[in-house]
Amino acid sequence: xxxxxxxxxxxxxxxxxxxxxxxxxxxxxxxxxxxxxxxxxxxxxxxxxxxxxxxxxxxxxxxxxxxxxxxxxxxxxxxxxxxxxxxxxxxxxxxxxxxxxxxxxxxxxxxxxxxxxxxxxxxxxxxxxxxxxxxxxxxxxxxxxxxxxxxxxxxxxxxxxxxxxxxxxxxxxxxxxxxxxxxxxxxxxxxxxxxxxxxxxxxxxxxxxxxxxxxxxxxxxxxxxxxxxxxxxxxxxxxxxxxxxxxxxxxxxxxxxxxxxxxxxxxxxxxxxxxxxxxxxxxxxxxxxxxxxxxxxxxxxxxxxxxxxxxxxxxxxxxxxxxxxxxxxxxxxxxxxxxxxxxxxxxxxxxxxxxxxxxxxxxxxxxxxxxxxxxxxxxxxxxxxxxxxxxxxxxxxxxxxxxxxxxxxxxxxxxxxxxxxxxxxxxxxxxxxxxxxxxxxxxxxxxxxxxxxxxxxxxxxxxxxxxxxxxxxxxxxxxxxxxxxxxxxxxxxxxxxxxxxxxxxxxxxxxxxxxxxxxxxxxxxxxxxxxxxxxxxxxxxxxxxxxx
Amino acid sequence: xxxxxxxxxxxxxxxxxxxxxxxxxxxxxxxxxxxxxxxxxxxxxxxxxxxxxxxxxxxxxxxxxxxxxxxxxxxxxxxxxxxxxxxxxxxxxxxxxxxxxxxxxxxxxxxxxxxxxxxxxxxxxxxxxxxxxxxxxxxxxxxxxxxxxxxxxxxxxxxxxxxxxxxxxxxxxxxxxxxxxxxxxxxxxxxxxxxxxxxxxxxxxxxxxxxxxxxxxxxxxxxxxxxxxxxxxxxxxxxxxxxxxxxxxxxxxxxxxxxxxxxxxxxxxxxxxxxxxxxxxxxxxxxxxxxxxxxxxxxxxxxxxxxxxxxxxxxxxxxxxxxxxxxxxxxxxxxxxxxxxxxxxxxxxxxxxxxxxxxxxxxxxxxxxxxxxxxxxxxxxxxxxxxxxxxxxxxxxxxxxxxxxxxxxxxxxxxxxxxxxxxxxxxxxxxxxxxxxxxxxxxxxxxxxxxxxxxxxxxxxxxxxxxxxxxxxxxxxxxxxxxxxxxxxxxxxxxxxxxxxxxxxxxxxxxxxxxxxxxxxxxxxxxxxxxxxxxxxxxxxxxxxxxx
Lengths: 548, 548
What we know:
Two copies of one chain form a homodimer.
Chain A: H1 7-17, E1 22-25, H2 32-40, E2 44-47, H3 51-65, E3 68-72, H4 82-90, E4 95-101, H5 122-128, E5 133-136, H6 140-157, E6 161-166, H7 189-205, E7 209-213, H8 215-219, H9 223-233, E8 237-239, E9 254-257, H10 265-272, E10 276-280, E11 301-304, E12 309-311, E13 314-316, H11 321-330, H12 360-370, E14 375-379, H13 383-388, E15 399-400, H14 411-421, E16 426-432, H15 433-439, H16 443-448, E17 454-459, H17 485-489, E18 493-497, H18 500-512, E19 518-523, H19 531-540, H20 544-547
Parallel strand pairs in A: 1-2, 1-3, 3-4, 4-6, 5-6, 7-8, 7-10, 8-9, 10-11, 14-15, 14-16, 16-17, 17-19, 18-19
Antiparallel strand pairs in A: 11-12, 12-13
């Protein structure tokens, strides 16, 4: 490291070296010094309207870029990102939460400085629950080592970490130290060998192996490795919803999204009849598995995650996932000559009927056709997400959805984080009217930074996914005239859509209008729902009201 | 208690008995059962756009009503109110946080149910940091006792508490129990006597005693007791900013707001030259005390709070604040014949100059004249709050501002909580353009529930209070055309205001238009500021950039 670097400079350089180019946040007095330093640096500060928006934007950025940063002030800022940090933790998104804080000298005698909750370390204790590593930089002598320790924990675990910067520490000179810490986990070669031999034997002797790939493939960057394994073995592959697009959905061995009864029936049947299910980087979550409608047989599964590897009913620890996958590739896994596998339904061009009301099913078919190689689909939880299960995402594009933690309000701010680091991709944001009312005004931030997302509001007059479970006035929301938003923000284009022809016309216009955001207010029957949700409802019958 | 009450019924009845009439929140699947039960009960569910809005609304409600409730779903809901709960903790506002959660039976085998962060008790651990008591209702046998324990902690401490309701517990029958717990603190009579004798002796022998009253007077409902003490002793009284309106600002013994150099100079001089300062229920916070410009002499102070009582340099514990104040009233405290005390400047009718741009100073003078007995002033932190220091609040009205924790985005949702429980008061909401962009769209909730707040947006094109500290692009915000909001929400009236005459005309219209909200977009010079902030800046000179 360079001598004479300040704490601020050291931290900023490290973030840049790790590939960070943007920092999301809202300034506050305890963080002003750091914001000032960021403005002078080669990182761009992206001010959101509210810290919540910054948290979601940083989460999406981390998912796409490998690392994201949200920078806030003490308590009033940091506690507003508790929820987005929890989501990043649950869904393995490496977000660095940097919080300004009262100076070390200011804390003496425990005065009632503004923004303090109970004690000065209240927020540290909160973030200890929501991160894999945390630190308060209160000593320049170990600042460098501490920053490195915490950042490498984020990289290694793909989960959020917390760095608190007392405001009088920023200009202190970091004491140089020898980078001698080994932050990586080691693989026990004996364990690896035994696990590989057993797995390969089982797979080679199986008749109908299937890979079910999950989100860790994406987070740890194993897409190419996975592709090679599939090319070597010819094993068909399905993905979970959280893992959607870890492989191109046009790949000849791709079956579709497996999601229990919520997914397509042919995929479900194929996966569940496998005599050797190979789960790679999959979270066994309830939504991923179609709210308990999945039937996966543990006794015939090989389950590989970054945390541990299980074969049938026994477990191997201390194996790096990458080494295990690499081991697969170097092993004598045979080529499986399976044919007749299900394939995703390819989008067909919709033919609008003039004056016919748009149904949820028509909307998703139409959007599916609309996608091109430069689209990234980002959805909020709810039917916006379930409906997207059946969309075929093209090879260059990606799909982002908080399919496990499922926090409403994610999608609009997530589009900001995504497009800033992937400027060639235009986000197609699918969001319910209820979720839009939470964070949708972050479109203001899109305008400020010259972005042009396409926002499709699935306007079904309330919390549509909850109505079939238990309905009441509490599932209603006030009806907004979303088409007024361009006037409020002095930018963008809006479309009020009730019929199929209006939808097609709007999508044509949207392709041409690229200088700012487009918002499509798509009016839907409050009791209509996506094919995926209809499949689930059919399978569960009335059980849904109990199980979700 | 009634036999055969379910957990839901028991909790709802207790809340009603404590004076709660509204519950703020956003439903989610883990909380749907409770929302359904609330809808059937005599409590009204108030759906906000986002949980953050519900948290702030409940905080304001608790401040005005003595108890407030926010009800949310697991993790994705509860963690969105971490910040508002922290504010309630720091500023002594008794908010009950009720969170739906996975059922007790669902938690077996630790499955990956949606919304889960690390472990099932992650959010409990978070809220343990932000509340004075917390519980998970996982056993019907002790549910009644647990609910009572936690609710009484909120009442006793005037601070938030946390109740987690696993969704399979709601319909369980609560086992009756004898209410035998003593939840109140006791006063040690010997301690009380000694403290009273010493305090009375000091006050009686002082030449220039002054009372400085704080927010605990309001929270614990000691306003009448305070009034009697002042009538008995004739001692002049100042208030802190957080304690503004604990006494009528028209009272003949009221000096004004004491806030160090940020307050009026005559008040500062009078208070700081006292030979016997009696602090009653005051938080010694930095903002309350004008960011370190206060000069209060501990050696001549009597400091009474709900937590302890200090006289000069020694401390008494185990004294109930109410008994101490009652002891004052029953003691032989003498009548002080002080005259020539400072008085607040009474508002004068502003005379607009046509075409002259509105200054911050003119705005506050004009609003001060506009107030009537049915106005409650609610401010966001920043110059909206500092400027209100000099406003004279009329006797029937109140003043709400998060003057210590200072979380931006409070005021608009706070107006919802306030007006629902005090329907005769019309909120005058003072909010910066930056803060409005955080939570201002909660006006949607005001419309839904038929409220009519007056929103004054102090539009100075960014974070105005931060500019004098350290400026940069990070203090800018996108300019919104706030006047479009009524069209977006299909309700309300808006005013675009640049000049003094436009302001006066708008305020005349606002008085007549009472059927929905009014929003005044008041354009201000980005470098203008309130008289209070100007006084502070003058006193601190360049020190402000270091101290705030």
